[in-house]
Amino acid sequence: MSQIAARGIRDQHVLSAMKEVPRHLFIPPPYDKSAYEDCPLPIGNGQTISQPYIVALMTELLALKPTDSVLEIGTGCGYQAAVLAALVRQVTTIERIPEVAGLARANLATVGCKNVDVIVGDGTRGYPQKGPYDAIIITAATPSVPRPLIEQLAEGGRLVAPVGGRDIQELIRLRKRDGSITEDQCGGVRFVPLIGECGWSG
Ligand code: SAM
To answer: Do 146 and 74 form a contact (C-beta atoms < 8 A)?
Structure first.
């Protein structure tokens, strides 16, 4: 946690949540041995668990409240969802690869996380059944923020996403206020692609 704080994460709630969630239980062997290094790691099916600093930064940018309902696109192994779940009332997370969603469900059950729903599907369309959401986080690289997700963001809501090319993106934060959207740019990042109707085609 000291590595993350040293890189500028100040939100004590985020730092405590990351201390609480056992990251090594989300990573299949042999990479679980490197769970506490500040780097992304493979989780199978060509996918990755994000670097701890990026998980912390994106979580901090969401400015979460305990009563919030959050939508995550790109469940992966479920680690980011577990960190969010320690901070808010309810997390809905969508994963397009069924095997990866299965891994996330098993991991979340192992750590006793009860306020996360894992949905299999194309997250670029969001999940209007449980919206609107106080916060939305996209954990895969998208050419632009999918329109359905902006529509499913509540008034006062925050959305954080890596937006740009397939190889390198800018982390952006959108805020919806009085029906209009403002955008902050928060630095360069690298994510695997968001594949779907309103993302990359494959
Ligand atoms: N949030 C994860 C964590 O806690 O480690 C990391 C996610 S990983 C970097 C990106 C994930 O997004 C992959 O598991 C990938 O299969 C998924 N993905 C890509 N396109 C998607 C889509 N349209 N809908 C839902 N998931 C998608």
So the answer is: no
